[in-house]
Write a structure and sequence with these properties.
The protein has helices at residues 11-24, 28-43, 45-50, 83-95, 114-121, 132-137, 140-145, 157-164, 171-178, 191-195, 197-208, 235-245, 281-292, 320-329, 374-379, 399-410, 450-467, and strands at 72-77, 99-104, 125-126, 149-155, 182-187, 212-213, 217-220, 227-231, 256-261, 266-269, 272-274, 296-301, 313-316, 335-338, 345-347, 368-370, 388-395, 414-419, 431-432, 435-438, 441-444, 448-449. It is of the alpha/beta class. Helix 4 packs across helix 12, helix 8 crosses helix 11 and helix 13 (281-292) packs across helix 17. The protein is elongated, with a radius of gyration of 31 Å. The protein binds cytidine-5'-triphosphate. Residues 260, 320, 338, 340-342, 344, 371, 373-375, 391-394, 406 line the site of cytidine-5'-triphosphate.
Length: 470
């Protein structure tokens, strides 16, 4: 503390002090002490109680900068190709009201930058154990303490090995060793590394030590030609597990949801078919979001190039007929969402054998017959009609007006209308712009990713079921 003597004060102040001391019968020094004491009392005890010294050993974990009673997630991003998905995970956690801070391992910084993670969290990203600036402000012990849960995504084989062995040679491992918070690991690695005895031994140790686990999932790996178990769980799936750790977020828990997705293939003969450009991305995202919200989900999927969403029962079909049959078998459900781009027509007499061309012969005349309308069939059912029947309307003009007509003719409760003209890039792309058409009117949603459309739809469904009047 700086030392201050009465002699250093200016003349006017000294005179006033002397007068005041004489009036109160105290020495000048005592008078100064009394004034300081009174001033400190005025500031009050509140300041003292709320003050947390910037020490790494502070007794009570601080919530400074954390909005309201938001739960705090410390996301440790390990060095794997799946790290790019962790940026999306930050967004998923934040949209669920979590306060997120990030640690990037050195290897992770090869895949994502601290700048990117910092821009999405809106917080400083921590990378170094021996950064004097960070150590003064938020040391590793405080990072370990000032969080409600730690998520390690991707948890690489190396990171898992270090944590299982109790190593602490960088910020991430030191925080993991120092924390008492629950830790959720989202492993991601090459399938052979995952099945390696050493990794499995480390995994068993980590589970014994009380670490929670999400994934890894089965499917295509980032490396060409590699597939198996080792894909990091999807961000929505990880966010759902984090919510579960806090005992919330299961807005569709106990509900049965059916989703149709993708195109259908209508055979011309055993090797040829009629199809459309649907990718299945929107339907699959909806199925994943419903599962993440705790629903029991049946996904009836046409032929797509997408992995089956985790936690979802996926039934693969080819034609509209098969899709209708599988849909009916999946009843009863609480909610049915028809996102598939079902072929409207099929070939009347699909050849049993490959149609051959021979010189001079006329080109085949493909007679078409109408396919069953799956959405309309289910929406008009007398028995086992789902409480909420939702269709899509793929339009290229007069989007809302055409969707309103479809809402009435198909007998569904909601229609998500979208403009699928080639210039919108919606068919097959990752973005979507929805107009939600209900009996109450039309609501325009902002352009957003298909994943975000899915999350928004699921939250609207949960609200509607809560009110029990779709
Ligand atoms: N649909 C269905 N079965 C069909 C055709 C469509 O279940 N045979 C569903 C779609 O899954 C979507 C909705 O009906 O939820 C509207 O599909 P869309 O292709 O927009 O309209 P169509 O009914 O095919 O009418 P049109 O092609 O004339 O626009």
């Amino acid at each position: 503390m700086a030392s201050l003597t009465v002699r250093q004060l200016d003349e006017r102040l000294k005179k006033l002090l002397r007068l005041r001391a004489a009036r109160n019968g105290r020495s000048v020094e005592d008078e100064v002490r009394t004034i300081l004491r009174e001033a400190a009392d005025q500031v009050g005890t509140e300041v003292l109680e709320n003050f947390t010294p910037p020490s790494v050993h502070s007794a009570a974990p601080s919530r400074r900068g954390v909005p309201g009673d938001a739960k705090r997630v410390l996301l440790i991003i390990g060095g794997g190709i799946a790290a790019y998905k962790s940026l999306d995970l930050i967004r998923r956690l934040k949209e669920r009201g979590f306060y997120v801070r990030c640690i990037l391992t050195k290897a992770a910084a090869h895949f994502v930058t601290p700048l990117a993670a910092g821009a999405i969290t809106g917080e400083r990203v921590f990378t170094d154990l021996f950064d004097p600036a960070h150590e003064f402000d938020v040391g590793h012990i405080r990072l370990a303490r000032e969080t409600d849960v730690i998520v390690v995504a991707p948890a690489t084989a190396d990171l898992m090995a270090k944590v299982a062995g109790g190593h602490a040679d960088d910020l991430a491992t030191t925080v993991l060793l120092a924390t008492t918070a629950k830790v959720l690991l989202a492993p991601a690695m090459n399938p052979r590394m995952w099945s390696n005895k050493a990794t499995q031994r480390n995994l068993a140790q980590l589970i014994t030590d009380g670490f929670a686990l999400v994934g890894p999932n089965e499917g295509e790996m980032a490396e060409t030609g590699e597939s198996g178990t080792g894909r990091m769980a999807e961000p929505l799936e990880i966010a759902a597990v984090v919510e579960k750790l806090f005992g919330r977020g299961q807005s569709l828990s106990g509900k049965r949801v059916l989703v149709t997705s993708g195109p259908t293939h209508e055979p011309i003969d055993p090797v040829r078919y009629i199809a459309n450009r649907s990718s299945g991305k929107q339907g699959h995202a909806i199925a994943a979001a419903a599962a993440a919200a705790g629903a029991q989900v049946a996904l009836i999927s046409g032929p797509v190039n997408l992995p089956d969403p985790p936690g979802v029962t996926t039934i693969h079909v080819e034609s509209a007929h098969d899709m209708l049959a599988a849909t009916e078998r999946a009843l009863p459900v609480d909610v049915a969402i028809f996102a598939a781009a079902v072929a409207d027509w099929r070939v009347a007499n699909a050849g049993e054998h490959k149609i051959k061309k021979s010189k001079g012969q006329a080109t085949p005349n493909l007679a078409l017959v109408e396919n069953p309308d799956i959405l309309s069939t289910i929406a008009h059912r007398k028995s086992q009609r789902p409480m909420l029947v939702i269709g899509f309307a793929a339009e290229t003009e007069n989007v809302a007006a055409n969707a309103k007509v479809k809402l009435a003719s198909k007998g569904c409760d909601w229609i998500l209308a979208n403009d699928v003209s080639p210039q919108t890039g919606i068919m097959g792309g990752n973005m979507n712009t929805i107009e939600l058409v209900t009996a109450k009117g039309v609501e325009s949603w902002p352009p957003q990713s298909k994943d975000d459309v899915a999350v928004m739809l699921i939250s609207r469904i949960a609200d509607a079921l809560l009110k029990e009047k779709p």
